[in-house]
Design a protein that fits this description.
With 393 residues, this protein is an alpha/beta fold. It has two domains: 228 residues, Aldolase class I (TIM Barrel, Alpha-Beta Barrel), CATH 3.20.20.70; 143 residues, Aminopeptidase (3-Layer(aba) Sandwich), CATH 3.40.630. 39% of the residues lie in helices and 19% in strands. It is built from 14 helices and 13 strands. Strands 6, 7, 8, 9, 10, 11, 12 and 13 form an eight-stranded mixed beta sheet that branches. The protein has a five-stranded parallel beta sheet with strand order 1-2-3-4-5. Strand 1, helix 3 and strand 2 form a beta-alpha-beta unit.
C-alpha cells in the first residue's frame, strides 16, 4: 500500500513521506502480488538483486495490510525464491498475522517503534504511540520465536528530540530480546511534516553507534547474520561499520520455548541428577514470575540462572545457577552472574540477593557479592545468604 490511514491526520508520523510519491504520480496506490512478482523476477534476472523489501502504510481495517503483504510475499517467493523482508505495524493479535507472513515465505520482519522516548513518540508518531510499548514487546517476542533471533528488527530514529540514553537503553532492551536495533539518523523527507528539521550531529551518531554496537557484541547480534532487509543492506545506517565480532559466550534472557526447555534440562541435570538436592524436579512456584537468563556458545545453551522480583519494593532474588558439566570453567558462570546483576539493576532493583551453596561463596565474593547473616541449612546443604554490589553493574 502506498497509502496510509493515518496520513494527513493528527495520527500521522511526522517524519514519514509515504504518500508524497503518490501525490507526484510516480507510483500507484496499491501494487498487486502479480505486479510485484513480475518486477522482482525481472530485477533478479536483469540486475542480479539478492533480496526483496516490502513496506506498506496502515490500512483502514487493521490487519488488512498484513494479508496483502502475505499474498505479495508468496507470489514473489514463488517467482524468485529470493529472501524477503517485510515491515508493518504489529498485527492485531500478533501471532496469527506473524504466522501468516512466515507461512507466505517471509524471512525477516521489521516492527518499528521508532523511539523509546514516550513523549517524543507521542509527538512524532501518535499512531505508533497508541499501539503501546507492551504490544510492540509482545509482537517482538512472538516474531523472534517464529523468525529467529537477529531476523527481527526495529528502526530507532535519532534526531526526533529524544534523550540520547533512550536510544542506547532501548537498543539494549531490543538486543536482549534478539531484535536488531536498527539505529538511523533522521533524514528529513521533502513533503513530510518534518521536512525543515535538521539531521543529528555526526558526533552524536558516532557516540550512539559505539554504545549500540557494544550491546550487539554482547548479545550475539550482527547485521551480517540478517537474511534480508534494511539491516542486511545497511545503507541508511552506519551501525554495521561499528560492529565488532560477537562474544564467544553470550548471555541474554531465554528468547524461545526451545531455549527455556534447554535451560530447564540443565537445571535438572545439575540439581536433580548430580547434586540430588531435589528428587524429581527443581521447578517451583517462582519459575513462572522469573526471567530465565541463558549462556549461549555457538548457538547452544550451556548454562542458566533465574531472577525474579520479591515484591514492588525493589528486592530481587537470583537462583538456580547451573552450568552444563563440560562447560564449567569456561567463564559462563561468571558471565551469567554479572549479566543477572545488570539485568535486575535495569529493572529498578535496589537489593539483589541469592542463597548460595557454601562451596560457592568464594566465587561469588570474587564477582562482587558479600555474605549477609549466618550459614543456614537448605535441603540438606549449608547455604549462605549473599547480596550483590549493584553499584558495580
Amino acid at each position: 500500500l502506498q497509502t496510509c490511514d493515518h496520513w494527513q491526520s493528527r495520527r500521522q508520523c511526522r517524519f514519514c513521506g509515504i504518500e508524497v510519491s503518490l501525490k507526484n504520480q510516480s507510483t500507484i496506490p496499491e501494487k498487486t502480488p502479480g505486479q510485484l512478482a513480475e518486477v522482482a523476477w525481472k530485477a533478479k534476472e536483469l540486475d542480479g538483486i539478492r533480496q526483496v523489501v516490502l513496506t506498506t502504510g496502515a490500512s483502514s481495517f487493521p490487519g488488512d495490510e498484513v494479508k496483502l503483504l502475505s499474498r505479495c510475499a508468496a507470489a514473489i517467493k514463488k517467482a524468485t525464491e529470493l529472501p524477503i523482508h517485510v515491515q508493518c505495524l504489529p498485527p492485531p493479535g500478533s501471532s496469527d498475522g506473524l504466522n501468516l507472513l512466515r507461512e507466505a515465505g517471509v524471512d525477516t520482519i521489521g516492527l518499528h517503534i521508532e523511539s523509546f522516548d514516550r513523549e517524543v513518540l507521542a509527538r512524532s508518531a501518535p499512531a505508533k504511540a497508541a499501539v503501546g510499548l507492551s504490544t510492540y514487546e509482545k509482537a517482538w517476542k512472538e516474531a523472534v520465536e517464529l523468525f529467529g533471533p537477529n531476523q527481527v528488527s526495529s528502526f530507532l530514529i535519532v534526531g526526533l528530540g529524544e534523550k540520547r540514553d533512550s536510544v542506547i537503553q532501548g537498543s539494549e532492551r531490543l538486543a536482549d530480546l534478539g531484535v536488531y536495533p536498527f539505529v538511523v539518523p533522521l533524514r528529513p523527507i521533502p513533503g513530510s511534516v518534518m521536512e525543515k528539521d535538521s539531521p543529528p550531529d555526526p558526533g552524536t551518531m558516532m557516540e550512539i553507534y559505539e554504545k549500540v554496537a557494544e550491546s550487539l557484541r554482547r548479545k550475539g547480534l550482527s547485521s551480517k547474520r540478517s537474511l534480508a532487509g534494511c539491516v542486511r543492506c545497511g545503507a541508511c545506517s552506519a551501525l554495521s561499520f561499528y560492529e565488532q565480532p560477537v562474544e564467544r559466550i553470550i548471555c541474554h534472557p531465554a528468547r524461545t520455548p526451545q531455549e527455556l526447555t534447554r535451560a530447564a534440562a540443565i537445571r535438572q541435570q545439575v540439581f536433580v541428577d548430580e547434586q540430588r538436592i531435589f528428587q524429581k524436579t527443581d521447578a517451583d512456584e517462582n519459575d513462572w514470575k522469573s526471567t530465565h537468563l541463558v549462556a549461549e556458545l555457538n548457538g547452544r545453551i550451556i548454562g542458566t540462572v533465574r531472577v525474579f522480583p520479591v515484591n514492588d519494593n525493589g528486592h530481587w532474588i537470583g537462583g538456580r545457577l547451573a552450568i552444563q558439566r563440560e562447560y564449567r570453567g569456561s567463564g559462563a558462570g561468571e558471565l551469567l552472574v554479572r549479566e543477572a546483576v545488570r539485568f535486575v539493576k535495569k529493572k529498578g532493583c535496589t537489593t539483589f540477593t541469592a542463597l548460595i551453596q557454601e562451596e560457592n561463596i568464594p566465587f561469588f565474593v570474587q564477582v562482587g557479592w558479600r555474605p549477609s547473616g549466618l550459614l543456614q541449612e537448605y535441603r540438606g546443604r549449608m547455604h549462605q545468604q549473599m547480596k550483590a554490589d549493584l553499584s558495580a553493574a
